[in-house]
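STRUCTURE REQUEST FORM
Protein name: Leucine dehydrogenase
Source organism: Roseateles saccharophilus
Requested output: structure tokens
Priority: standard
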Amino acid sequence: MTPISLFGLPEQAPHERVLLATDPATGLKAILAVHSTARGPAFGGCRLWHYESEAAALNDALRLSQGMSLKNALADLPFGGGKAVILKPEGQFDRPALFAAFGRAVQSLNGAYITAEDVGTTTADMRGMQAVTPYVSGIPREGAFGGDPSPKTAWGVFVSIRAGARLVLGRSSLEGVRVALQGLGAVGWHLAEFLHQAGAKLVVADVDTAKVERAVAQFGAVAAHVGEILAADVDVLAPCALGASLNEQTVPAIHAKLIAGAANNQLATPADGDALQRRGICYLPDYLVNAGGIISVAREYRNEGEEQAVMAEVSKIAERVEELLQRVQAADSTPARVADDWARSKLVRPA
Ligand code: NAD
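Status: completed
Returned output:
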């Protein structure tokens, strides 16, 4: 694992604030990382995960929160970037009590950080926190939009794949385009539905074999081994499981010419983005294509618009993909590096 520098990973700007929150009564151990509030309060989900070490959890919180700054900036949201991770307690635990304690930690930041769902957390967890803090989103509202951001994230990834297929692969539609999907969770499953409806041919893998069997039955997908999905003989690769899937070991074996997926922090290091480019593979940066969920919860938090308006805003991600690819050509650089510079130039308060 990359060694940690508490005041900024080598490739990152320093974080404004990092809170280590504990609550012995509930077993809460959480890290709330506020990377930037330059554009507004730091907004980003909360992950509940079993980490191999506290250092790994801190590393995740620091990287994910920086990613949120870039994601929110590129999506033109009036929010900065933050993220929280809760170290999953061993054995049985009182989930509502744990999230109430986490909600109190969020509240202690007085609005500098706003939370929502991420891997391992649910709309019920978010609803439970409302009793202790208003700085929470991703809660279904009766007769209105809001709640689970995953379908919106999937839609953003889908329109990105569609745009990338046109611009990179020269395909006018997704009919017959072969897509490998790593992870059939909340986002991956919705993405599989959209792709199937558009006529794409799916190759899928998930550690949960029941999900794979369902995808085979429902979408006519081909099942792949989890260890082989990244190297599948396809046109497009959509990583929708966990981070760092694009690394020294996996990049040389990738066949797809386009990569666009929901997982955060797909590149293990910036050098892996360069290696993809050298192999003629176009990697659309994760935080550009997976912004649909944050767009949804941000609108919900601000009580703005309705379902159709959210979907229209998420669909604009495709325009940004197009602009990014134009910028890449002009800069003679990689999409990951150009997107980073583009996003960093927007880390200022919107006019
Ligand atoms: P999820 O937990 O619902 O789904 C993840 C899926 O990946 C699960 O089905 C899991 O079994 C599977 N998986 C885990 N390890 C795997 C492996 N090695 N190979 C194949 N499958 C594996 O999570 P999600 O909400 O669908 O999010 C997926 C990714 O997208 C995460 O990285 C998350 O941070 C990111 N993301 C999610 C959202 C959102 O709206 N949910 C928004 C932005 C980014």
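Reviewer notes: The chain has a mean pLDDT of 94. The longest strand covers residues 28-36.
Form closed.
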